[in-house]
Write a structure and sequence with these properties.
Elements (H helix, E strand, L loop, with lengths): L1 H11 L1 H10 L5 H14 L8 H35 L10 H20 L2 H12 L4 H8 L3 H24 L1
Length: 169
């Protein structure tokens, strides 16, 4: 039986075949090797004059088949996307409605911060938006660390309340 001889050559050179597939860039080299093994076992074959080169060629062909299949799938997906959405380019930019909503929410957030006091609003912006440590903010503004923490708690409460109102709307 010819496939028994081919299976023996495959098993003896499995690591070499795996390295070969990996060197070709196959991220799924193990899967390809397993598929090659299944084909060797299931296909009726005659004698193979040069079994190792035959296995290398078969592994290479399997990889090419996978690559072609993936390319065709990507082409179909692209074509479907164009048919479903149209040929226009999709933009990562938010739409005009989202920009208006974001501006309105930013305005409301600013008003909520100012409602807790100018100092608390400045401390919140320096710490949360600028990323400055609380102790540095305290030194910059000439207040104690506990004052910074208290003002941040006020600002956080105001922001949490505002977010709750946004979520309810």
């Amino acid at each position: 039986m010819a496939s028994a001889g081919l299976e023996a050559v495959f098993l003896a050179n499995r690591d070499k075949l795996l390295r070969f597939l990996a060197s070709l860039g196959a991220s799924d080299a193990e899967d390809l090797l397993h598929e090659l093994w299944l084909r060797i076992q299931s296909a009726p074959m005659g004698p193979v004059a040069a079994p190792l080169p035959y296995l290398y060629r078969a592994a290479h062909n399997l990889m090419l088949d996978r690559h072609r299949s993936a390319r065709q799938t990507a082409g179909r997906e692209r074509a479907w996307s164009v048919a479903a959405v149209g040929d226009q380019e999709r933009s990562d930019e938010p739409g005009a409605d989202r920009i208006l909503i974001a501006r309105e929410q930013a305005s409301k957030a600013n008003a909520a911060l100012l409602a807790v006091g100018e100092r608390a609003a400045r401390i919140f912006r320096r710490h949360r938006l600028d990323g400055v440590e609380q102790r540095v903010v305290a030194a910059e503004m000439g207040v104690s660390l506990s004052t910074v923490e208290a003002d941040l708690r006020k600002a956080y409460r105001a922001m949490i309340e505002l977010k709750r109102r946004f979520d309810e709307a």
